[in-house]
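Journal club side-thread
Mid-discussion, someone asked how the predicted structure for our own chain would compare to the paper's figures. Pasting it here so we can look after the session.
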Amino acid sequence: MSFGTFILGGEGNSGNSEFMKRGKSQWQDGPAIPSPGLACGCAVEVDDFQFAVIGGHPDGHSEAVANVRMYDMTSGSWTEWAPLNTPASYVACVTYGSTIVVGGGYRYNPTGKPLKMINMTKSFSAGDLAETTIINTNTGSNTVVAPLNTLRHGAYMTNLHNLVVAFGGRNTETSAPLTDLEIWNPNDNTWNNGPGQVFQTGRLK
């Protein structure tokens, strides 16, 4: 963010964050992340004073969650946005205009029981995801659109000269790093295959 840098959550520390103000050299405590925290999810800047945390899983658990939360620096408060349609960890996300594009990820629910932590009654088996969700940052609502062409988790997504590009990550079935990239078309909310990467990347963040 323009006024500083956040480190948010992580395995074993999913409920905490740290912040370093621009021009300073020391870290300070940042806002506490509401349960279940943020581990193996995605964090993205919404604007100069807001960021969102998406998906992931709680410390010590592999069950993915669908939570989407927005933190406002000016009010020091969290706002719960509409959850993802499918709980997912290792998702990729990027801001595009007044939206956040979220894609891919991994879902794992070893018990087969409903994920009550996020107040949902659906059950999901394990596997990589291609699902793409568009979050409206003005309302907090979201829409599921056309999926990625490749199942992938741990990919990276970036806004490159106003083009949303997803690349890298892994596919569980092949256990191999992915070398392709995809470009999102905002006119019809679909993904087009782009040129391949020069090298394999595996999981990226």
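Post-session note: Confidence is low (pLDDT under 50) at residues 112-124.
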